[in-house]
Specification:
mitochondrion; mainly alpha
Length: about 375
């Protein structure tokens, strides 16, 4: 009996191994069930096909429909970025790579983050470093002012001759005098382009710093609201006591009088421009500064004080020798002198000007033509 069961089992196993692998159904031959006991009973089995999985509807396996198990990482706040030493200019939308004011803004922000200074100290320190790096500008201005003061009388004579020629209406003479003046200035080394360059550099730096601080204040950059000192604790509002506008007006008047930033002394300017620069501009700065935020006026006062420090430094003969600066001829012109000069010019304009040479020539030519076309004049008395 046992030998018969073993023989049938071995035949069943051999039959299973020789089945076709591509078939999906297993059928055992009848010899496997011969005998009193069934050794293995395998019903029909259908294998799992990969075709059913790949041909399934794609909508049933859409990944987007699966809910997210992990929420997105929250973005850091502006305060967190500032505390970690990161720049927040782009987050506040006050950064543009093509604007010079953005780079000044970045400079102020770097000083504020790295040196842990209040904003009033950051503005003062940044302005001091910037003016120290640009010391070549007041040196150029001093050289230009020295040349203008040395030939002040000659330039004034050219100016008076041009005004007289304009009063006569002789444009040809105006051009001739102007060419003579340009030749004289070229021989003496007086360059008007240098003076314009000085004004453009100073004006460009001032406007860039002005708009840099103005946008930071308007964007509510952290720290400006409580970053002041003394009586101006809030840098985002105007000075309630008007002390900063007064300081700005007084210092700008002294800076213009010293000529350290403009490249020319007030005595070398025409009377109208002299009065406008010395007294008109400080008045405008006072009334405009009374409405500006205190942060801008802190920069303004700091810059003016540094300019006055340069003016005091350049008065020392040892410093002028080191920098090879020629001496500036002193000429005191008071406020009343400028007023009297302006009054005399206005009186001369109101009075009837004498006829010009061209007008006299035109009148003579017209009389000559009339005499040629008219009848001859007969003197009856001689007859």
């Amino acid at each position: 009996m046992l030998s018969h069961i073993r023989a049938n089992s071995s035949r069943c196993l051999l039959t299973i191994k020789t089945l076709n692998k591509s078939s999906s159904r297993l059928v055992l031959p009848q010899t496997c069930h011969n005998g009193p006991h069934a050794i293995l009973a395998i019903s029909s089995v259908r294998f799992l096909s990969t075709k059913d999985l790949l041909s399934a509807d794609s909508e049933k396996f859409n990944v987007a429909d699966i809910p997210e198990l992990i929420p997105p990482v929250p973005k850091p706040t502006i305060e967190d970025m500032l505390a970690s030493g990161q720049s927040i200019l782009k987050e506040l939308e006050i950064w543009s790579w093509w604007k010079p004011s953005s780079y000044f803004r970045w400079m102020f922000e770097a000083a504020y983050i790295n040196f842990d200074l209040p904003w009033w100290g950051t503005i003062c320190a940044g302005t001091f470093v910037l003016r120290l790096l640009m010391i070549f500008v007041p040196v150029m201005a001093q050289k230009s002012a020295a040349l203008n003061s040395r030939y002040r009388k000659e330039i004034a004579e050219f100016r008076d001759r041009i005004q007289d020629a304009k009063a006569e209406g002789n444009n040809l003479l105006v051009q001739q005098i102007f060419l003579e003046q340009m030749d004289f200035m070229k021989r003496k080394g007086i360059k008007m382009g240098r003076q314009m360059l000085i004004l453009c550099i100073n004006g460009g730096v001032f406007m860039s710093n002005f708009f840099a601080l103005k946008k930071m204040i308007n964007a509510n950059y952290p720290g400006f609201a409580d970053g002041g000192a003394l009586w101006f604790t809030d840098l985002t509002t105007a000075d309630p006591y008007w002390l900063l506008p007064i300081i700005s007006a007084i210092t700008i008047h002294l800076v213009i009088r010293s000529g350290v930033d403009s490249g020319s002394m007030p005595q070398d300017m025409p009377s109208t421009m002299r009065l406008a620069m010395l007294y008109g501009m400080p008045a405008i700065i006072f009334f405009a500064g009374s409405q500006m935020p205190a942060g801008i006026l802190v920069y303004w006062c700091t810059s003016n004080c540094i300019s006055l420090s340069y003016a005091i430094l350049f008065r020392m003969q040892a410093v002028r020798n080191i920098l090879n600066l020629p001496p500036i001829e002193k000429s005191t012109v008071s406020f009343m002198d400028a007023i009297n000069e302006l009054k005399s010019k206005n009186k001369s304009k109101k009075s009837k000007p004498p006829p010009s040479i061209l007008d006299l020539k035109k009148k003579d030519l017209e009389n000559f033509r009339k005499a040629g076309r008219g009848k001859p004049i007969i003197d009856v008395k001689n007859k």
